[in-house]
Amino acid sequence: MHAIRTDRLTAILLGATLLLMGCAAPSASPIAPTTSLEWQPLSAEDADAAAGPTPQPAVALPAPAPMATPTRAQAVNTGKVAQKGSEAPDFALSDLQGNEVALSSFRGKVVLLNFFATWCPPCNAELPDLQTLHADYQDRGLAIVAVNQAESATTVARFVDDNQVPFTVLLDANAAVSRQYNVRAIPRSLFIDADGVLVIDHLGYMSDEQMRAYVEQLLD
Questions:
Q1: b/e burial code for range 22-56 (CB count within 10 A of at least 16 → b)
Q2: Nearest of 8, 88, 96, 20 to residue 52 by alpha carbon
Q3: CA separation for the pair 14, 10 (Å, rounded)
């Protein structure tokens, strides 16, 4: 009995080590699954305890509540749907000051169109890197435009103030623009070149290295 318990403990420690190594340093080539019978795989409970919480790459959006009439400053080109490699459909939404802001007003710049919500954990996780990206690239021709997903202006304004968000934030009050851009999960980051063409579509959390590589690709 003692030997069985010792083998089980060894299996748990070995499995935890493999999980941690996989997270910290992923291999560039696939690793074949082990067929060894010398240790048992971790149970679901043991694996969760060893690996810790898993970051969520994207969050599915709830269905928007129906609205009787569209909000003011929500002029959408309903005849076009966003497609990678094509011109990004124009739209106009209100910012937190009540000004109407059109996507086309950023023509000539590289635009990072970021769909987010204040309640979305991976959106919040990438926000500090977006703020740093804005500071580092705004003078080189990058414009970050964050589109909020159907939350109240009060909620978004509080979030922007608490986090000192420096870039443009727009309110997609009835999710019309999100539907036009087929946004079903967030964060969703679309990179539009200076000619207005949708070039890069990134779903889920975006690391600092990834966002910088995308921007450098379009600014070169």
A1: eeeeeeeeeeeeeeeeebeebeeebeeebeeeeee
A2: 20
A3: 6
- Give the separation between CA 111 and CA 192, rounded to whole angstroms: 5
User: What tokens were used for 26?
Assistant: 């992923």
Give, in degrees to the nearest 5, the angle at Cα 148 between 147 and 152.
Answer: 145
Q: Which two tokens stand for residue 111?
A: 């635009």
Right CATH for 60-219 from 3.90.1150.10, 3.30.465.10, 3.40.30.10, 3.20.20.80: 3.40.30.10
Query: What does pTM read for this prediction?
Result: 0.69
Domain boundaries, the chain: 2-52, 60-219
Dump pLDDT digits (tens) for 82-91: 889 999 999 9
Place of tokens 């149970």: 43
Range of lowest pLDDT (36-40, 83-87, 197-201): 36-40
